Amino acid sequence: MHNLTIAELIKGLQSKEFTSVELTHHFLDRIGSLNPAYNAVITVTAEQALKAAAAADQRLAAGNAPDLCGVPILHKDIFCTDGVRTSCGSKMLDNFIPPYNATVVENFEQAGAVVLGKTNMDEFAMGSSNETSFYGPVKNPWATDSVPGGSSGGSAAAVAARLAPGATATDTGGSIRQPAALCGVSGIKPTYGRVSRWGMIAFASSLDQGGPMARTAEDCALLLNCMASYDDKDSTCIDREVPDYTATLNGSVKGLRIGVPKEYFSEGLHPGTENAVRTALAKLEAQGAELVEISLPNSALSVPAYYVIAPAEASANLSRFDGSRYGYRCENPSDLQDMYCRSRAEGFGEEVQRRILIGTYCLSAGYYDAYYGKAQQVRQLIQQDFASAFDSVDLIMGPTCPSPAFKFGSKGDDPVAMYLEDIYTIATNLAGLPGMSIPCGMVDNKPVGLQIIGNYFDEARILNAAHQYQQATDWHDLAPEGVAS
Amino acid sequence: MNWDTVIGLEIHVQLATKTKIFSGASTAFGAEPNTQACAIDLAMPGTLPVLNKQAVNYAIMFGLAIDAEIGQVSAFERKNYFYPDLPKGYQTTQLEKPIVGRGNVEIQLADGSTKNVRIHHAHLEEDAGKSLHEGNFSSKFSGIDLNRAGTPLIEIVSEPDMNNAEEAIAFAKKIHSIVTSLGICDGEMSQGSMRFDVNVSVKPSGSDVLGTRTETKNLNSFKFMEEAIKREVERQIDVIEDGGTIAQETRLYNGETKVARSMRSKEEANDYRYFPCPDLLPVIVSDEQVAELRRNLPELPDARQARFTEQYSLSDYDAGILSSDAAMAKYFEAVTSACNDAKLAANWTMGELSARLNNEDLSVAHSPVSAAQLAGLITRIADNSISGKMAKEVFEGIWAGEGSADEIIETRGLKQVSDSGALEQMVADVLAANQAMVDDYINTDEAKRKKKLGGFMGQIMKASKGQANPQQVNQILTKKLNELL
User: Fold this and answer.
1) B44 touches chain A (CB under 8 A)
2) Which of B266, B291, B316 is the C-terminal boundary of a domain?
3) B398 and B432 part of one domain
4) Model-level ipTM above the cut of 0.90
5) pLDDT at residue B129 in the model
6) CB-based contacts of B355: which residues, under 8 Å, 6+ apart?
7) pTM across the whole model
8) Do B45 and A88 touch (CB under 8 A)?
9) Active-site residue flag, A76
């Protein structure tokens, strides 16, 4: 059953080939036996899952159940789950049990999806390798000595290892697309404002966006149908009808104009990755799409601008973790100052502290204009780059990240090398655009991701192109050794 | 040397919205600690603010009342600092783009002259919670009550246009009058609904150069504010005349102990690292919205004063006092319409009632004597049923909850004797019993006889146990004595 896609599972559930309880037992068993090797799942909610599965089976029996009724999924541990620990990968929230659901969690619950548990992640979503998690790194199912990417590495690895057919994730600078690429799964970051941020623990509020991961574009479409919604609890959520993303999957790519930014094929791109991406583009061209070389001239500025804006917002967003109302508090504080200092020094990991310090510095009196002010100007330039590009193309495609999964510890001492991992993904967050990664090849038995960027609210077009590509290729069907059997 | 004083005010006004500025929790005063603080107010992870539109409307109404520019696009920023009563670690406020721009407030001074005080701007922000240092805590701990956290405020910032405590108080009272008349604030000073920060500096008379200013924060009564200003002006002059210099600092004044002290120096001031709040969209105010609010603006104090002078034939002074406080004005008008005697209604509202309320530190809204009860009392004064002296006794009875004026007059047997037959007899009896006084009266020069009436009046009132109608007694007495001449 674990080799079936969500689309196939829905058929099986609705035609009573198997029940949700059977399915849920199956995936819980897999998590039990395989997860210790990957550390992708950090909380298993077996009891609640089986209860939800039994309820889903009743709904299925009654007929007219929503698509995802009875389908098991995992939530990234950044989404608040009522009554279930939500740690955000941090010691700071190791003891935090929210009394509310994130809107995303609520949406899946309404649809009758079965939540198996919560996935591992970089602490507060800050990282590109999953090495910053308080719960230890996630291992890439394709090569357990290598990183799964981050910050949604747990979700990506869990889907790759077929511990769940789909998972939720979030993307602030590439945190859905980069781990999807490194683990050989499909993942889409929607337009900013498409998915509610209520109950999604904030890293950088103007960049954070939730999205789904699954093995195929079609499954991502099914999950996004449920995940996207207007939510009046999130002021930045956009009140716009959610289309049925599965309805347009089968359209032809004939005449589709694909922009290929020359800046995405520059120095630093692994030749194997470049080759795989170029081959994928040729495939789409063969399917009738038109390739257009374009330029996004300010691309090189996206990483420095991001590493001012995201830490600046994070420095304020993470101020609430002060040891006073919830979360970690140091032992025997001598006074208020001591409680603040030690709770935060002991509760946050190194990378989180680094970013809080960077952000605090960038916003400080005398530095604001040079850093935060300048970064906001760059952000506008990057938006303009994309706006001009979308005047002449329908989608933009290129590599998701510069190289396949790297080994643990290989970038540990060099934060900037780690930050460059997101060089192709960050710009879409700064612009608020939707972006997707789908598997498009293998290098040294490690997956390569093709990134597809669309215009605002053009998720349907992205998913359509991705699905058409997957109809003609089978990279998305490959499974790491020992996983498919 | 002579010194000039320069004063500017920052006034925090709690807006009388039912719910908080960014959450649905109630703003009602006086609830058990932390019973009116929801997940948003507690800054739980993943929660997001949603702006209360009523708070925006109230701020615009204030802007219209002071003839200010209304910001068509205003924006919220985060002001970052750590404090236990500030759950998010930042206050959401406005800095660069406040909702209300420059405006003007005219104040009346005791000598009848008027003065214009310029308003620099007014902005929307959230209130903080409260630290509780007394209560059931073990010695090392303080409590935090977050009921107030998130209560909407407008902070009104004046230009340094006031030159003494009297002007500052007149300005503060005028703002109180405006916001209570608009109905955007309950004006309850003792509950912290209005709080004042006072910026004070002194300079040699006639100098163009402003002295170094200090800020005395969080004064919550006109009286404390007046004391604090006077003391600070004296302190600054003493320091300078002793050869010292004024340090720019924030000070606190304790109204109970009358002690002022330094809270922090300029060097210790926080770097608040303001930046635009990414969780809230800019506030767009349309011309239609402003026009609609302008159309429905309640009567303002200046207009009401003019109306009171005209409609009730009150002096400017009486009209000014009665119209300044919206609740007081409403009360006065209710009394007047029920008793049909504006002059007596004005005297009693400004006199006995106000004095009693001040003594008990009550606002007119919480007066134990209702407008209908006071009107009932005035009706009995006007129809001569009771004397002025009895009226005070009856008023005390009403205050103590003994019932209406008529009930108290009845149960206490306070009815004034106005029956002329009975009064004639009383006067005749007293005259007969005091022949020596009568002779004295007759033998006195005509010009001085009037002074001798008091002695007879005292005897007659005593004989009637205070119940004789004094005006009538006076008439009868004069008539009878004159007959003896």
Assistant:
1) yes
2) B291
3) no
4) yes
5) 96
6) none
7) 0.90
8) yes
9) yes
